[in-house]
Amino acid sequence: MAALAAMLCSVAQVALGQSYWEMTPYEVQIVVAVEPAPSLPAEAEAILVAELESRLSTMAGAVCRAEVVAAGKMHRYRITRAIDSFAGPPVVASMISAGESADEPPADAAATTDTAAEKVIFLGIRPSPMGLIVEARQYDAPIARWSGSRRRVCEQREAWLDVAWNTLWDAFTPLGIIKVSRDGSATMRLRASGLASPGSPIGLPRPGQVFLPVMRRNDRTGKPREHGIQVVPWTMLAVSEVDGLDAKLDVHSGVRRPLDVGRRARTELYGVDIGRPRGTTRLVLQSRSDDARALAGYTIVSRSPLDDSLEELGRTDPDGALTIPAGSSPLRLLIIKHGSALLGKVPIAPGVLPEVVVSIPDDDLRLKIEGQLSGLRDHVVDLAAQRQVLIARIRARIDAEDLTKADELLDQLKELPTKETFVRRMDDLKKTSQVNDGAIQRQIDRLFEDTEAVLGRYITANPVDELQKELDAAKRG
Known about the structure:
Blueprint: H1 2-23, E1 26-34, H2 44-59, E2 64-70, H3 73-81, H4 92-95, E3 119-128, E4 131-140, E5 145-146, E6 150-154, H5 160-171, E7 175-180, E8 186-190, E9 210-218, E10 224-231, E11 235-243, E12 246-253, E13 267-273, E14 281-287, E15 299-303, E16 310-315, E17 321-324, E18 332-338, E19 341-348, E20 355-360, H6 364-399, H7 403-415, H8 419-430, H9 438-458, H10 464-476
Parallel strand pairs: 1-2, 1-3, 14-20
Antiparallel strand pairs: 3-4, 4-5, 4-6, 7-8, 7-13, 8-12, 9-10, 9-11, 9-13, 11-12, 14-17, 15-16, 15-18, 18-19
Helix pairs in contact: 6-7, 6-9, 6-10, 7-10, 8-9
């Protein structure tokens, strides 16, 4: 009975935790800054605060409890013109005070802010020759992460409030809790999804939506450990199907079981919506050896998750880098090739991360061996053709009793390389074809095996002795 009671209590706690997550609204702090502009009213900042509060209450009140405040004058410039400069947890109290410092704690400090809000969004408006530039950027406290900034241009002065509202929701990124089953499949529930309505700007998960997985390791108090929040490397999640509040996820990764947390206690997996990121990502390839050598000349091919179409993006430069542009889908599935070898696959959402460094086997020696053995195989095929031509000509001269010409042709056949010649060349090449990486060594070994098979298929027993006997018999009459 005690065991049964404990089990039921555990199940109830899990169910309560799930229910709390999807039935609890987001706590959001919005800090706005508006520079004076001829196209804006004198009290534009106060008007914007009131308008956002009103719209949030009527359109997102169920899923979002938000407070909207105006930034202090000391920090207006940074929000309107340097919004991408924010790095660590935002100190909101100083941002809305006119005379205090805007200093932030280091980016690797514990993920805490001076506000209870789970999300902090900065929204800035400034004039420009193109019209009003509206930018917004969000900080997610649970995963200690700044999203990329979102930007719109307002060309019609009467539309500035609508543009500000749309930019705000461009920056808002839904956050989900991920659950991984024993077979490696994953599902996710979004925060406040149980409160969302069809008209909500946040809404439920939808097929094709792409999420960046973030792992958070907590201490006994529930706070993140030092360096305990990390983006799961080389991994992206795409919603494949929605069943009620649960989103089934396709896991795209360059590593096996990237979401496996094993038995690590107090570890949480989050998924943050990447939205429609703008910009590019710099892909850097380096060897996974101790020297982490830059890998130049590696071909990068992009596969679309929408229709599986392929697009060659280019080759890595001398620094092992290639800039990955945005595609028709937020997610690009990159294939890394070197010569004929497929070395790895990695998903990238251009613009989400400025740089992605991928460590793969150094394939340069394998490619060199591949080229040498390819040339050797071509030589074997050419040699086989030459031998067959000479054999046919020799026998034709013997039949025609032109034995002098048959002798000359037989001498040419004797001068051709033999099977043993190629075997010696391959043995010499094997001596310089050893690497420390097991996967690359297996590929090199297969290249030699394929070449040996070609050699056995095309270069059979030496026909010289048999032809010599035929020629000698013809000479004896």
